[in-house]
Amino acid sequence: MTRLTQLLMAVLCLLNLPVQAADAVNVDTPRGAPISVVANFPEGKGPFHAVILGPGTGTMKQKINEVVERELLKHNIAVFRFEWALYVKDKNGKPSDTDRSPEIEDFTTVVALAKADKRVDPNAIIVGGKSRGTVIAWQVLRNDPTLKGILQLTPVCSKEGFTADQLYPDIANERSPSLWIAGDTDSACNPKTLYSFLARAGGPARAAIVIGDHGLATEPTSQLTAELSADFISAVIK
């Protein structure tokens, strides 16, 4: 270890920031579409518990996911984030609301990447996402019984033209633990609608309503959301 590295690690410790390793890779889905993946790992060899966060519409560079990622790293949890293939191909692309199979394949590809990484415990992986990412993560969870739970940041439960049952089908038969965090002024998910929907959950479902809109980007809401997320994951994967 060089003197510069030692100094950097000392500074990170003083600032209470996680010392981590970051991997940025491009991988192809089975259909041949490239996706961009960024994996962040805590200090050490692992194997670590891991969370795979699907982005919302637009880009993976969304503040709430970044804040949650930082908090999870502090708890020795690896985080995989990625860009939908649609946006890798065309940053102005528009996703389909009738055929989500390409995004499900994107997400599943990242799950496979995480499971194959020796730094990750393949039996301790949680999926989740923000907004549209929550919809895709739900389908991925239902298709893979090895996943341990789901973290839903700003779910879409009452947006015009959609119902929670359409976007998150078969809630009564899903046994995996889940955490759903929404803002109290989020027009895409009315708190009463969310509570009513989750009351029918077949597994342990937690709901947290925090101050904020669909972005959950303001302080202290973003940090509170991150801490709630870390507490949930730590409790689910022991």
From TrEMBL:
Position of the signal peptide: 1-21
Highest rank taxon of the organism: Bacteria
InterPro entries named among the record's database cross-references: AB_hydrolase_Est10, AB_hydrolase_fold, KANL3/Tex30_Abhydrolase
Name of the molecule in the record: KANL3/Tex30 alpha/beta hydrolase-like domain-containing protein
Molecular function terms, GO-annotated: carboxylic ester hydrolase activity
Gene3D superfamilies to which the protein is assigned, alphabetical: alpha/beta hydrolase
Limits of the KANL3/Tex30 alpha/beta hydrolase-like domain: 51-228
Pfam family, one: Abhydrolase_11
Keyword line: Signal
